[in-house]
Amino acid sequence: MAKITLDNLAHSYSPNPKGEGDFALKELNHDWEDGQAYALLGASGCGKSTLLNIISGLLHPSQGRILFNDVDVTNAPTAERNIAQVFQFPVVYDTMTVHDNLAFPLRNRGASAAYVAERVQKIAHMIGMEDVLNRKARGLTADAKQKISLGRGMVREDVNALLFDEPLTVIDPHMKWELRTQLKSLHHEFGHTMIYVTHDQTEALTFADKVVVMHDGRVVQIGTPEELFETPAHTFVGYFIGSPGMNVLNAKVEGSRAYVDGTEIALGANYAPLTGKVQIGIRPEFARLSGNGEGLPVNVRRVEDVGRHKIVRADFFGNEINIIAPEGASISPDMNRVTFDAKRVNVYANDWRVEGEAA
What we know:
By secondary structure, the protein is of the alpha+beta class. It folds into 2 domains: 27-240, P-loop containing nucleotide triphosphate hydrolases (Rossmann fold, 3-Layer(aba) Sandwich), CATH 3.40.50.300; 247-358, CATH 2.40.50.140. The chain has helices at 48-56, 98-107, 113-126, 142-154, 173-190, 201-207, 225-230, 235-240, and strands at residues 4-11, 25-32, 37-41, 63-68, 71-72, 83-86, 161-165, 193-198, 210-215, 218-223, 247-250, 252-260, 263-271, 278-282, 287-290, 296-297, 299-305, 309-316, 319-326, 337-340, 346-349, 352-354, 357-358.
C-alpha cells in the first residue's frame, strides 16, 4: 500500500508544447492517501488514462514527479513500482488454464504452492469462476476473460496500488454490479490503495471513497459522492454528476440575491461583487414547480415518469431547466413557475464555485 503524491505533474504528447492547450494533463499537485479507494471520473479524452499510465510507469511525464510513500519513482520502471494494473480489454494467457492465469503473478514472485492454491481459490470465488478453473482461457467469452484479468490484478496482497482502467467495459450489466461489490469488499478487507478509471458516474460513486473528477486535462474536484452532489466545485462537476445534472443559469449576483433575466432569486449566503462569467447552479432535486406567480417563468415541455420520481423538462427563454418532482405529484397546466431552495443554490464565477458568507 502506498500514499501517491503527484508533484508539479503535467504531460504533453507534443515534443515541444508551447502553452497549456498543448498539455493533455495540466499541472497537478495532489496527495492521494494510503489505503483509500479513488475513482478517476470524466468524459473520454479528459486525461484519466494518461494520468493512470503515468502512475503505473507506462508513460513518463513531461514534467514533475510521482512519489510512492515519499519515494520518487518517476524514473522507475513499472516492474519496480509494485503495482497491479487491469486494462479496459482482457489481457490473458490463452494457452494457460484459468487457474494458472490467476496463479501466475504469485508464482512469478516465488510464493509457496499452498499460498498460491489458497489465494487462487479465494479470488476464483470472488469472480465466480470456481467451476472453470481447469479450463483453458482460449475459447472463453470476453467478459469471462476480463474477470480473469480482474482476478489476476487482485490476487496479490502485497501491492502498493491496484489500478483499474475502465475494467468493466466488456462485462454484462448484472456482473458489473457484483464485481464492483467484490472490489469494494476487497478494499475493506486488505486496505489496498485503489485507483479506478471510469466515465460512468454510477461506477465511480458506488466504488470510491473519493472521486477525482477530471475535465480538459485538469482535476476540478476531489471529494466524496456527497460533496460532489451538494457542492460541485466546478460547473462541469455539477453537469457531469447527477441524472439529470445541475441546472446552470447566467446570473447577476448582488449580496444575498441573484437576478436571472430580471427575476430575483434568494441565495443562502452573501457574496462579494463578482466579475467575469457569473452563474448560479441548482440541482433538479432542489427545484420546485409552482403556479403562484413566484419564481422563474417556464414552459413545461414534457414530463418523464421514471418510476421513483418524475423529471420535468422545462424551458426558460431557451435555457433548459430540469425539475425532479415526487412520483405522486400532480403537475397541472397552470404550474408555469419554478422556485429554488435558497440554501441549495451554488454561485460560480468563471465556472468555479464561490464560497459565500453566512447571510
